[in-house]
Structures are given as structure tokens and as C-alpha cells.
UniProtKB/TrEMBL annotation:
PANTHER family tied to this protein: TRANSPOSASE (PTHR37319), TRANSPOSASE TN5 DIMERISATION DOMAIN-CONTAINING PROTEIN (PTHR37319:SF1)
Organism: Vreelandella rituensis
Lineage of producing organism: Bacteria, Pseudomonadati, Pseudomonadota, Gammaproteobacteria, Oceanospirillales
Any one Gene Ontology molecular-function term assigned to this protein's record: transposase activity
A biological process term (GO) from this entry: DNA transposition
Cleaved signal peptide residues: none
InterPro entries hit by this protein: RNaseH-like_sf, TN5-like_N_sf, Tn5_transposase, Tn5p-like, Transposase_11, Transposase_Tn5-like_C, Transposase_Tn5-like_N
Domain Transposase IS4-like: 225-364
NCBIfam families tied to this protein: transpos_IS4_3
Sequence ranges assigned to domain Transposase Tn5-like N-terminal in this UniProt record: 4-61
Protein name: IS4 family transposase
Length: 471
């Protein structure tokens, strides 16, 4: 894919040393060419691998500094678009097996095999957590990360155990891990420079009243899935009780894939209302009531063997009409894009196979792979939504020439647009390219780009004087 995209993601990055900046660019390009390979394989040799290990261990390098350039590039891509920007927030875990797990930390407690005495073996899982915000267009095109936070736990304390000792609603938000939702909302809003355009989208874990208040203070918007039946109006009723008296405004069809990857369709009955939502009882003196929109969508006649789809959404955007409610349902359905990003990061870049020994080094490596994963996700959606775009923005002259030769004769007359070359890459990754096949996904594309990088390396070895013009 050439060096141009690396330069774009590096423009706003400064590690305080020109040699570190240069090493970062070299490593980013190497991982972009071979995202699913081990670090020695990706960096092609002991000298480069050793330099990469020193880079990850350098005290002047951190995940924030590594991602600084990418954040700046994301801001430029956001500024180049019009209309709303959906900022998806979510948390993911990376698990590792280490002889010294205390050097990394822990994520949660898990239950293992059954022991002789009949009890199940319990153990804490070694790993890191990452909370990320991914900006996309309403059509689903990823524009880049806008915030990311990495952490681990020195000693894991189960949330349920803590709840038995203290009422969580009375603990200040600043003392909870859930503060990460507010931090990312604020950082992302500041990065975009257009709070009125942002719609921060999260799952049930983001149903936090402090987040609602922060969004109002910043002049930005949120759309989250509710997990709490909050007090409403004067406090004598709840959201669910109010919605039970609300008439269905219409239906909405959604398309999705089930756990087995099969295409599914569901028809949802939709209710919407705008009401006053009260803060938790223990915080009513600190936070004001909020005028919010509520959307309840429930699947009509769900099939046997699958749980019905039930979405209860809460937002500070207008939901005065059925069309408003449907728009928000469509936007919320885009939340799956960040799950795809995490899958690409874990499966495509094989983060959990990396053998780095400390939390800091792993976080630095994951941050670098985040840029690669975004790039793969961006190319996947670019092929679907902007199929007629010029391929010069993605592929070098050599890459296009090699991909031309890789396509079968019956496709040689096709238009040489971005869709043609992305399909050629996907074919290298195992895509069958039958008329009935859906568009290629991230898996076949990252496999295809690995093979393309090898083809380019072989061509340049055989033709050392060949031009390597970048797109």
C-alpha cells in the first residue's frame, strides 16, 4: 500500500527524537504489510526486530504519543466531511499467558475445570483492557480513532463483590472505571472541534447519568442503550411505565448476521417519546434533571431458537417523529462497526499472540496495531461505498500492475476502479468472487494484503531498478 498512508498517519506525531519518529514509520509500514505475522516475521530480520523491541521499551514512547498522529489525521478526515459524525465507544479485553502475570496485570476472574472435590477452579485472567472511540460517517465509513485508554488491574476485585459492600450509585464517578466513558467523550469532542456534529454511541455500560450531563455541558450529543429503568418526570414514575402508555408509532426492518454468520432480518415495533429523566436518588442534589428522548424497539414474532431483539435507547437528540426514531435506530445499529474493528485488531493483528512481557510494551504495540486495524476497516468499507474512486489513493503503480496480472481473463475488461483492485486483493486472500458472494470482508482483505506485500517484495528483488511510485 506504499508509504503515503503511513506519512498521513504520522504527520501529527512527534516522539521528541527524529530517530524514534523514523523507526515508528518503518514499524507501521511493516505491520501494515504483514498484520497477522509475528513481530520477527513482520519486521523481516533480527536487526529490525531488536530495534522494535527497544522502541516498545523506550521510556519516551507511550501509547498516547504513538496514536497522536493518527488522532490528528482522524480530525482532518472528520473536518473534510459534512453532517453528523457517529463516535462509537466500547471496551475490549486482551488476554495473555505469562509466567509473570503481575508485570501485565489482570482483567477479570474466570471459572476453569472442575476439581476432584467438586468445586470449579477459579483464577484471574492476565491481560489488558482498552477503551476506544471510533469515528464513522452515518454510512459506516471509519474515519479513525478519536480516543483510546489502556489499563490493567494490579489485583482484580470483582464488581459484584464491591456491590455487596457499597451502593455503586453513591460512589463518585471519578472513582469508578466507568469514568473512561466520560473521558473519551470529552477527548473525542475536543478533537473534532465540532461538538454539535458528534453523536457518541455506546452499549448498556454507557448508560451513565454523569455522561448525559457532561454531553449537555459540552454541547454534544449521545445515543446509548439503556440498562437502568430511571425515574421520570416528577420522580413518581419510571421510563418503562411512561413507555408502556405510549402508542407504537410504526415498524422498522433491520438486517444483521447471527452468531453463526447467517444473514437475518427482523421487524421491530417502534415506540418513541420525549420526557424528563431524573438522576439517581443519591445524586439528585448534584445533577439536574434532563429532557431526553426515549426509543423502545422490540422484535415482532422472533423465530424459535433466537432471543428477540429488544433495544431501549436514550438520547438528547430529538425524537419527535417516527422518522427521527428510525434514524436513531439506524445509527445505533452502526455500533457493530467497533466490534468489527476489535475483531480485526485481535484476529487480524493477533495481538494476544505477542510475547512482550510488560503492560507498557504491550500497550505501545497494541496502539501501533490500532492504526493498522483502522486502515483495514477503512479499506473494506471504502470498497463497498466508494467503489468508483481512483485506486491511486490506495495502491502504488507496482501494486496495481501485479493485481492486474492476478485477475482472470474474463475480468480484464473491467473498469480499473477501487472496487476492481480491492476485489483482486480479496481474491489473493481467498475470496471466491462469485456473483452470489457478498462483498469481501476484513479477513480476506488482510490476508490478501499480506500476499500482495510478498508479491511486491519479490518483484522488487527481481527488478531492483523498478519504480516504486506511491499512490
Amino acid at each position: 500500500m506504499g508509504q503515503r498512508w503511513v506519512e498521513e498517519e504520522m504527520t501529527g506525531c512527534d516522539l521528541g527524537d527524529a530517530r524514534l519518529n523514523q523507526r515508528l514509520a518503518v514499524m507501521l509500514e511493516a505491520l501494515g504489510d504483514r498484520p497477522d505475522k509475528s513481530l520477527p516475521t513482520a519486521f523481516q530480520g533480527w536487526a529490525n526486530t531488536k530495534a522494535a523491541y527497544r522502541f516498545f521499551a523506550n521510556e519516551n514512547v507511550s501509547e498516547d504519543k504513538i496514536l497522536e498522529g493518527h488522532f490528528a489525521a482522524s480530525a482532518l478526515r472528520i473536518q473534510a466531511t459534512d453532517g453528523p459524525i457517529l463516535i462509537l465507544q466500547d471496551t475490549t479485553e486482551f488476554s495473555f499467558k505469562r509466567s509473570s502475570p503481575e508485570k501485565i496485570g489482570f482483567t477479570h476472574e474466570s471459572t476453569g475445570r472442575k476439581m476432584k472435590e467438586g468445586r470449579h477452579h477459579k483464577y484471574t485472567v492476565c491481560g489488558l483492557l482498552m477503551h476506544a472511540s471510533l469515528a464513522i460517517t452515518p454510512e459506516g465509513l471509519p474515519l479513525g480513532l478519536t480516543a483510546a485508554k489502556f489499563w490493567s488491574r494490579d489485583k482484580f476485585k470483582g464488581a459484584n463483590a464491591l456491590k455487596r459492600k457499597v451502593n455503586p450509585t453513591r460512589v463518585p464517578i471519578e472513582q469508578k472505571e466507568s469514568m473512561r466513558w466520560l473521558d473519551n467523550l470529552q477527548r473525542s469532542t475536543e478533537l473534532t472541534g465540532s461538538p454539535e456534529r458528534c453523536v457518541h454511541i455506546g452499549d448498556r455500560e454507557s448508560d451513565i447519568f454523569e455522561l448525559f450531563c457532561l454531553a449537555q455541558d459540552l454541547g454534544t450529543h449521545f445515543l446509548v442503550r439503556s440498562c437502568v429503568d430511571r425515574l421520570a418526570e416528577d420522580g413518581g414514575t419510571t421510563i418503562s411505565q411512561m413507555m408502556a402508555e405510549t402508542q407504537v408509532s410504526g415498524t422498522h426492518d433491520i438486517h444483521f448476521r447471527d452468531e453463526r454468520g447467517n444473514q437475518q432480518q427482523a421487524t421491530l415495533s417502534v415506540k418513541h417519546a420525549e420526557m424528563t429523566v431524573c438522576p439517581p436518588i443519591g445524586k439528585q442534589k448534584k445533577y439536574p434533571k434532563q429532557k431526553l428522548g426515549i426509543i423502545f424497539a422490540e422484535e415482532i414474532s422472533p423465530p424459535e431458537g433466537r432471543s428477540p431483539i429488544i433495544w431501549k435507547l436514550i438520547t438528547n437528540l430529538s425524537v419527535a417523529t417516527h422518522a427521527d426514531a428510525v434514524q436513531k435506530l439506524v445509527w445505533y445499529s452502526r455500533r457493530w462497526n467497533i466490534e468489527t474493528f476489535f475483531k480485526t485488531l485481535k484476529t487480524g493483528c493477533r495481538i494476544e499472540d505477542i510475547r512482550l512481557a510488560t503492560a507498557g510494551r504491550l500497550a505501545n504495540c497494541i496502539a501501533l496495531c490500532c492504526v493498522v486495524s483502522w486502515r483495514i476497516s477503512w479499506l473494506t468499507i471504502l470498497r463497498r461505498q466508494f467503489s468508483t474512486a481512483s485506486p491511486a489513493a490506495v495502491f502504488t503503480d507496482i501494486e496495481r500492475a501485479l493485481l492486474d496480472r492476478s485477475m482472470p481473463l474474463n475480468r480484464q475488461d473491467a473498469r480499473r476502479d477501487i472496487a476492481f483492485y480491492m476485489t483482486a486483493v480479496a481474491r489473493l486472500g481467498g475470496y471466491l468472487d462469485r456473483s452470489s458472494d457478498p462483498p469481501p470482508g476484513t479477513t480476506v482483505l488482510w490476508r490478501g494484503f499480506i500476499r500482495l506485500a510478498d508479491l511486491v517484495a519479490g518483484f522488487q528483488t527481481a527488478n531492483p531498478d523498478a519504480s516504486s511510485t506511491c499512490g
